[in-house]
């Protein structure tokens, strides 16, 4: 299972602790919530695609997410998207 880590300075961590008693728990919850939302969007896109093309939809969320990738409905973003704003 992948492990995501972030480094903060001591001062950044102190500032973070003014809004979150447990910054690690806060970060984990934020990521899991974002992933849940992405999964819902992917499942909806798969549902729409399968209905429009009369394709049997996989059973179970994990299988559905995999099917969406397999069918090319969604794809991962490249690791380096380049600058957000071109200069």
Largest sheet: none
Helical content stands at: 55-70%
Give the oligomeric state of the chains in this entry, treating copies of one chain as homo and distinct chains as hetero. Answer: single chain
- Residue fraction in strands: under 5%
Task: Give the count of helical stretches.
Answer: 3
Taking all Cα atoms into account, the compactness measure Rg is: 18 Å
Order of helices and strands: HHH
Total beta strand runs: 0
Structural class: mainly alpha
Mean pLDDT, rounded to whole units? 91
Number of domains: 1
**Could you give the distance between the termini?**
37 Å
Query: Which regions have little confidence, pLDDT < 50, spanning 5+ residues?
Result: none
What would the principal axes of the Cα set say about the shape? elongated
Describe the protein.
This protein is mostly helical. The chain has one domain. Helices cover 55% and strands 0% of the residues.
Secondary structure: elements and pairs:
Layout: H1 10-16, H2 23-53, H3 61-70
Helix pairs in contact: 2-3
Briefly, what is this?
The protein has helices at 10-16, 23-53, 61-70.
């Amino acid at each position: 299972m992948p492990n995501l880590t972030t480094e903060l300075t001591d001062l950044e961590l102190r500032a973070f602790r003014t809004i979150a008693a447990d910054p690690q728990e806060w970060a984990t919850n934020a990521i899991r919530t974002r992933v849940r939302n992405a999964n819902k969007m992917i499942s909806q896109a798969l549902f729409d695609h399968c209905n429009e093309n009369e394709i049997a939809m996989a059973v179970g969320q994990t299988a559905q997410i995999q099917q969406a990738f397999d069918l090319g409905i969604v794809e991962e973003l490249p690791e380096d998207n380049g600058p957000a704003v071109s200069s």
